[in-house]
Amino acid sequence: MSIDYLKIGEVAERLRITVRTIRYYEEEELLEPYRTPGGTRLYSEQHIARLKAILHLTENGFSLDVVRLIGKTRESCATGNEGSKEVSNIIGNSIADIEEKLNNLKALKSELAAAKKQVEKCKGCKNTPSSKGCPKCPVNKNLNKIEILNLVWE
Amino acid sequence: MSIDYLKIGEVAERLRITVRTIRYYEEEELLEPYRTPGGTRLYSEQHIARLKAILHLTENGFSLDVVRLIGKTRESCATGNEGSKEVSNIIGNSIADIEEKLNNLKALKSELAAAKKQVEKCKGCKNTPSSKGCPKCPVNKNLNKIEILNLVWE
DNA sequence: TGACTATCTACCGTTAACGTAAGATACTAA
DNA sequence: TTAGTATCTTACGTTAACGGTAGATAGTCA
Predict the structure, then answer these.
(1) What are the C-alpha distances in Å from B119 to residues A28, A35, B123, B133?
(2) Which long-range contacts (CB under 8 A, 24 or more apart) does A147-150 make?
(3) From 1.10.1660.10, 3.40.50.2020, 3.40.220.10, 2.70.70.10, which CATH number describes the A1-69 domain?
(4) By CB neighbour count within 10 A (0-12 exposed, 13-18 middle, 19+ buried), where does B17 fall?
């Protein structure tokens, strides 16, 4: 085989994903590798770069549909300004989504951090948990102050 | 019906979720509402607070299994230090997950922002897209500099 | 040239988090 | 009381993103 291209198994190993995943992205028309006359798939560095980009997005919670949208870039770039604007908007929306996620995660993080501190303060009371909470336990005493702790089971 | 409790439809409306979702969380033993003698579910503010907490977590990419884990707080708090430590670790792991997500999202955001700028610079060349890219188009010229743009379709 | 391993296509299976529908029962307002 | 709406249980359906298998073919190495 030419040294310039990788077969699917090699790509899978290099990117630490399964061959099934790679074929799946092809089924979804996110990628189209070369083929040998016999039908074996061959991947260039460009193909691999695109795979990396797809993984980068999916690992951050974006669906393949969104990936597909973002991928329209070049097509629209080659068809004039209007298309570019559309793509710009699509990417802009993705950025907005990310910003929302960032804010939510930051809030959640501080809530969890507060909850963790409370849990660590708790020395483990032996009282039967009541609906009012154990009066000696800071976790239960502060039940209403830390919303995340409303998750506590009864 | 007592004014203190809400029925499932009212809760669903208030939290902007479906009744099916609420019942599903109950199937998953994440929540156990009161019942009227006839079997109709009744929710207190505590129940609703827990529902909010569950949603807060799931909306940020956590699975119900993780939610269940975090929810062990009180149980372990009532059984001594060891349990508390376990819960503290579970929450600690969740925080670590969040930090990783935050870093990834930040990186992705700046990549997308860079990509967006490139797209906006592109005035829309009429050239047929070649494997080398359109020479007049900054998007294609900088193809290798902005990895996310390797997503471009051909 | 054989033997062995990798890939191919085609297709059914899986999991999480619900959606949806049916038929029965409960609640509520007039 | 009764008509109308909400809820109940049960159970099968759905979607995304793959997993796994079978039987056939391709690539590779001594």
Answers:
(1) 24, 31, 8, 14
(2) A147/A111, A147/B49, A147/B52, A147/B53, A147/B56, A148/A108, A148/A111, A148/A112, A148/A114, A148/A115, A148/B53, A148/B56, A148/B70, A149/A115, A149/A118, A149/B73, A150/B46, A150/B49, A150/B50, A150/B52, A150/B53
(3) 1.10.1660.10
(4) middle
Cβ–Cβ pairs < 8 A, chains A and B:
206
Distance from CA of B72 to the nearest CA of A (A): 6
SS3 B152: coil
Q: Residue B145: helix, strand or coil by DSSP?
A: coil
- Three-state secondary structure call for residue A139: helix
> Do B95 and A102 make contact, defined as CB atoms within 8 angstroms?
no
Q: What is the DSSP string of A86-138?
A: HHHHHHHHHHHHHHHHHHHHHHHHHHHHHHHHHHHH-----SPP-TT--TT-H
Q: Hey, are the CB atoms on A147 and B52 less than 8 Å from each other?
A: yes
Q: What is the dihedral of CA A44, A46, A49, A54, to 10 degrees?
A: -100
Q: Is the CB of A122 under 7 A from strand D?
A: no
Q: How far, in Å, is the CA of A80 from the C1' of nucleotide D7?
A: 56
Please enumerate in sequence order all residues whose Cβ is within 8 A of that of B23, keeping only pairs 6 or more positions apart, or say none. B8
Name, in order, each residue with C-beta under 8 angstroms of B90's C-beta and a sequence gap of 6 or more.
Answer: B69, B70, B72
Prediction pTM value: 0.78
- How big is chain A, counted in residues? 154
pLDDT of A97-137, one tens digit each? Answer: 899 999 999 988 988 888 788 777 765 554 444 444 455 55
pLDDT tens digits, one per residue of B60-96: 888 999 888 877 655 555 555 555 677 788 888 889 9
Note whether A77 contacts B137, CB cutoff 8 Å.
yes
